[in-house]
Amino acid sequence: MNEHILTCVQNRIGLLTLNRPQALNSLSLDMVRTITRTLLDWRDDDAVDAVLLCSNSEKAFCAGGDIRFLYQTAQQTARHGSGLLDDFFTEEYALNRLIHHYPKPYIVIMDGVVMGGGMGISQCHSGGKLHIVTERSKIAMPEVNIGLFPDVGGGYFLSRCPGQLGTWLALTANAIGAADALYAGLADVCIPSAQLPALKTALLSARRHSDIAAQVREFAMQAGEWGDSELARQRGAIDRHFAFDDVPSIMASLAADPAPFAQDTLAAMRKRSPLMLCVTLQQLRRGAGMAIEECLHMERSMMRRCFAHGDAAEGIRATVIDKDMQPVWSPARLEDVSPQMVEDFFQPAWPAHAHPLRCWL
């Protein structure tokens, strides 16, 4: 098995522990494969009643995909050709779909940093899933900050947040805490981090698991104890400004609002890739009417376009590799983003018979 994924079955609970703390549990291809293989085994194992997914780090549940690996692999692919980049996204999205349809209770402890791919292995759900946050949770889909879009099913779960909250999260790349995650529907219950060991002990020693949600909620904070939600306070402004279907209109609406929240939001968006802001908005608008398979199928082609275009490599370079925080976006100005540039990201990246996720549709 993978040293970065610890697995065991105890008291009919399958325990998956992310064990790569030095990289904030960023997902490698091997980690994706191990999680997938384990979930498939447990899905068909009558000795496993439920799955508990957690981290061994107080700092992070999962900071996303291993973007250093993605950057290096993209560079190697450009020079020599490599299938690893395609393999990573194809297999990661297949894992997201597996989780969405998982037939057994699936409990995720989203303690610490939860971003990108970490959201994919927690948020791509239907029924029977339980998302736990703590006072340490820091949740975001920060992809537009590195020249990408919120993939791993982001077009599905962000577009289903109340009102325009998902649009705000996607276009700002801002992080939120427990209160905002609960308000946005990205978490179900808040438990103090100090109580997590007791929660695990209770789940792994209970005589039966007829109502796991009730067991978890015994440890939960009461409403209001996790603090006030800034998103709740700003909901009216968010819904008003982000109701438009094009980014220039959203930014113009924000610019006309002197409130600090609107101006801070505008300042954040001005730092992001202009092209990927526009692509992301269209992704969410289209994803709102799609099934999870359709979203992931669309996002798989979009991701191929991202690395072919160049903003992804440039964003990762500026943020993670050189750390100069001065990405040179192409185009550099929002007014230079044409409708055709955006539409190109939604065109098939493969013939229909060759799409790596073709069997889903």
From TrEMBL:
UniProt cross-references to InterPro entries, sorted A to Z: ClpP/crotonase-like_dom_sf (IPR029045), ECH_dom (IPR045004), HIBYL-CoA-H (IPR032259)
BP term (GO), one: L-valine catabolic process
Pfam families tied to this protein: ECH_2 (PF16113)
CDD domains named in the record: crotonase-like
Location of the Enoyl-CoA hydratase/isomerase domain: 14-346
GO molecular function term, any single one: isomerase activity
Protein name: Enoyl-CoA hydratase/isomerase family protein
Organism, scientific name: Noviherbaspirillum sedimenti
